[in-house]
Structure formats: C-alpha cells, structure tokens
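Holo model, iron/sulfur cluster. Inputs:
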Amino acid sequence: MAKVYNWQLGREMDYRLEEAHPDRQFAAVFNINRCIACQTCTMACKSTWTFSRGQEYMWWNNVESKPYGGYPHHWDVKLLEMLEKANPGGQKWDSSQRGDRSPYGTYNGQTIFEAAAATGDENAIGYLPTEEEWTGPNLYEDTPKGPAGVPGVYHTDGAQLPEHNTWFFYLQRICNHCTYPGCVSACPRNAIYKRPEDGIVLIDQERCRGYRKCVEQCPYKKAMYRPTTRVSEKCVGCYPRVEGSDPLTNGVPMETRCVATCVGKIRLQGLVKIENGDWAEDRFNPLYYLIRQERVALPLYPQFGTEPNIYYIPPRWVPRPYLRQMFGPGVDDAIERYTNPSRELLAVLQLFRTTQTIIFRYEIEDGELVSETEINGRTWQMYNDTIIGFDRDDNEVVRVSVDEGIIERGQQYQNSI
Ligand code: SF4
Ligand code: SF4
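Output:
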C-alpha cells in the first residue's frame, strides 16, 4: 500500500496505487434542498448511454429516497455496517483542528482501504450486490422516516424547521469520479483509469474481462456488470461534452446530460484546477467557491476514503446525526450558511442551470437592496446583484440577477389556456 493525502479526511491514508492527480478534476454540486425527484436526469442519462440489451437494470444516474431507499438496495447501510464491523465505533472525526488542507478536521477511523487489512480483503472492503438488489432503483420512493423506524409510520403532530420529526429526502447519485477510486485499485487487469486531463474515470472495454472486482470494491456501487458483453461499465462523465469534442458544444466544455437537463435546477458541474495534489486556489470558479471557500457543499460518505468529487448541499429538515454520518462534520456549518446565505453565495446559487456551458469563472456586479428580513435571529438583507459566468475561453456565457422579477398576466389572458 502507498501513502496518499486525502484532503477530505485531513490526513494521509493507505491506497494500493501511488498518488497521482489530473490537471483538472471533474466535480459537481447537487443541492438536495431543491430536488423534486422528477427523474429527468435519470432518463436523460439512460436515453444517452444505457438503452441497449443487457443494460436494463443499469442506471448510471439514479435518484433514491432516503432513508430507506437505495440503488442497489441498501448499498450504503451495508457498507457502513462492514466498516463498523472492521473497526467498531471507529468512524469518528476530530474537528477541532480545521485548516485549508483539512476543512472538516481529521477522520480518525478506518477507510474502506484501511479496513481491508483487518478483514483480510485484498484492497478494500466491499460486496457484490445480488441481481435482486439491482432492481427497483427507487424502492421506498417518498417513504418517510417516523418515530418507530418503520417505513410508513410517522409522527402525527406536524413538523417544523430546522428539523422535522417525520422526514425523507432525495439523494441524487452518479459516479463520483473519485480521486482515489475503489474501482481503479480493485481491477486486476488495470482496465480502469483516471484521465489526466479531467479526472474522469473510465473502464477500457477491451481490457476488461468482467471479473467484477470494481463492482465489489466501488463503495458507491457505481460500477456495473453487463451480462450481454460480459464486461463492466460505468458512468463516463459524458466525456465528449466535458472535453468539448461533441458537435453540440462548439468546442468549449459543456456539462453532462444529467446536469444540463435538471428540472429542479439543483445541479452545477465543472472542472477544478489541481496543483501539487490538491485543489489550486481558484477563488472565482463557482465550484471552488461553493466547496472549498464557502464550504456549503460536502462530499458523500467521505469516511469511505475514495475522495469523491460530487458534493451536496445537505437538506435543512433532516436530523443532524443522520446527515453527519452521510456528509461528515461540515454539515452544521453548511446548513447555517445555506439558510442564511452571504451576498456572494446567494449570487453564485443563481448560476445553477442557467447555461449548459461549463462556467470556469464568475464576476458579480453590485445591485440595490431589495428586501430585509430576520433569519435565525439575525438581520438578513437581499441585494439584486448580477452574476456573470465565463467559459473556458473567458467568453461571457450567462448573466443573471438575484431578483427574478414577476410578470403579471393581464385580465384578458385569465382563461386563455
Ligand atoms: S432532474 Fe434534477 S430535480 Fe429532477 S430528479 Fe434529477 S436532480 Fe432531482
Ligand atoms: S464512485 Fe465508484 S465507480 Fe465511480 S470512480 Fe468512485 S469508486 Fe470508481
């Protein structure tokens, strides 16, 4: 095992391969608070990449209802249990010392790679889901969690923010194009690789022999086996769009299909600069700002240790212990910042789903004060600032203001549908 630095854990960790990093890293922010589970993202992905024979149960993008749902069924509960068994009570963080290279503090427990040594597994703990577990990508859809911990049994006395007694939420999932992918380190054929230009993780269909070690050792279960070709497949990060080679893109990097089609406007995807093995400071890249500067978006199960690159703005109404287990110790700060957003954060949040072109940089023009209110006992002011996004070549691709303006339908149109 080599020693690699994982900034999400705030420490070095064991990994089978030597540390290596791309020039830029594919990354995205998903705002859970806004998702309506319309599954447009899911169908956009399916109709682009997985509509053929042998791919019937293959959903590279899925949206599952938490806490009971999962695709494959109970994937995260199973992984958390395996981690707990290998290292009882060990999934603990020390958040007292936070810094630029350790924004959430330090994870003192074992990752899936480190736990493997204790269990005698080769590289990482993991399991192969059964065929039945791959069916029903949103089993338990809209099923709330109530007091008894039984699906469908819920509180009858109402619910209030900041946290609800009865709750569920949607979790949007694609491959995380991890910095230290479990799938890459698992493959005995070295058939899986991480692209040096954008960090997208791909399976070489010629080299793969269908051993399914990637399916077993991806903790997020985003590598999938195709019985008709007898090799494994996974999300390809819509790489022709991201590299700007798809004819639609006019030569500049464009967001993936699942991101570009999002009806709820919850998704923003981009490419972040990497230098010396870490994110280079890129203050006005919207992803850098949301994840490293404002820290309002967090990685999914960072304790697994793969350094996943899809980040989530956590839902406000869900009990915090559940969220801390899922997104780490940054949850409370992230929810506070989202609930009571700074002037800059409010402007950056407007960029979600305004253009399909990847935004590499933004600028903000100050606007006038439009409203004032109180949030959590503090005065909060809203300004009608304008945010401008620029593509890779520094051309303006979007300009949007905070205050959307209301258009009133005239009386003459009242019954005109
Ligand atoms: S398209 Fe957007 S809003 Fe609809 S399910 Fe997907 S992530 Fe949620
Ligand atoms: S999410 Fe899974 S399939 Fe995707 S890069 Fe990470 S380990 Fe590999």
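The mean pLDDT is 95. The first helix runs from residue 40 to 49.
Archived with the compound record.
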